[in-house]
Amino acid sequence: MPYIDIQVNGYAGVSFQRDDLTLEQMQFAGRRLREDDVEAILVTTVTAGVDQLVSRLSRLRRLIDQDATLRKLMPAFHIEGPCLSTAEGYRGAHATEHLIPATVPTMEQLVEAAGGPDRVAMGTLAPEVDRDLASTRWLRDQGIVVALGHTDAEMSLLREAEAAGAGIFTHFGNGSAATMNRHDNIIHRAMALDKIVYSLIPDGHHVPLFVLRSWTRLLGVRRCLFTTDCISAAGAGPDAVFQDWQEVDRSTDTPVVRFKGTPYLAGSALTPPMGYRNAVAHLGLSDADAMYMWYDHPRAMFARWLKP
After folding, report:
1. For the chain, what percentages of helix, strand and coil (3-state, to nearest 5) are there?
2. FRET pair for 86, CA 20 to 30 Å: which of 1, 68, 93, 203?
3. pTM to 2 decimals?
C-alpha cells in the first residue's frame, strides 16, 4: 500500500539536517523511500539557529528542485521549531540554545527560504511562546497548516490556538514531561479540543502501542493520522554511521534511536511499513482504517501540496 508521511527528518542513513547535503544523498534517500512504497513526504527541519535554518531550507529546496522525481516525492516542508517550549521534557530533543519566541518576521524568513507557502505545508510551534498567537494567525492566513507541539499550554490557550487556526497536534503524546499532573496535563488538555487532528507515531517506543490503541478508540480514527517522525536511522542498514551521541536500539522488531548510554529517546527509526504492521497487529485497526491514517487522511489534509 502507498504511504504519505508528514514528518520525515531523514531516511536510509541520510539526515535532512546536514548542511553539506548533496543531491546524490537526497536521491538515495528518495529511492529507499519509494522502495518502501512511500508516495510523498513532508521534508522536516528541526530546531537550529534561524540563519542556519534559512540556509538549510534554501539548500534542501534547491536540491529537490533539481530532480523531478524528488520534487514529486518531497513536494513541501514541515518546519518544526525553533519556536517551541523551553521547559525540560516538553522541548524533547530540540536544542535549548536555539529555542526562541515565535514572531511573524521569523516565520516570514523561514517560509520564504523554503520557497513560500506553496512549499511549506506545516509549521509546528508552541502557543505559549507565540505572543497573541500572531504567528499562528499569520501561518493560517498563508494557508499553511498550523501544528501545536512541544507545548505545555494551558487549556484556555489551547482553545484560543485552535480557534486561531491550529489544525493538528504534532506527534501527540511526545514532547511532554515524564511526570505530570495525573488530570490537568497536556495530553488530557489536548484531547479535550474540539476539532484538532492528532498525529501519532506507532513504533511502540514513543508511546506504548496499548496507549495508542486506547487513544484511537477515544479520539476516533477520523481525527488521527500516522507519521514516523523518523530520522536517518529509519531504513538504514546495521553499518550506517550516526552522530556519536546516538545509538540504534534493535532489541525489538521496531528499532528506535536513543541517546548513547541512556534510556532516553533521541529519534524514531520507524519506517511506514513497520508502522502499518504495528497499527494492524497491535492497535486493532482494520486494513481500511490503517490505510486511512497512513494515506487517505494526510492526502486530504495536505491536498494543496500533494499533486496527483
Report:
1. 40, 20, 40
2. 203
3. 0.97
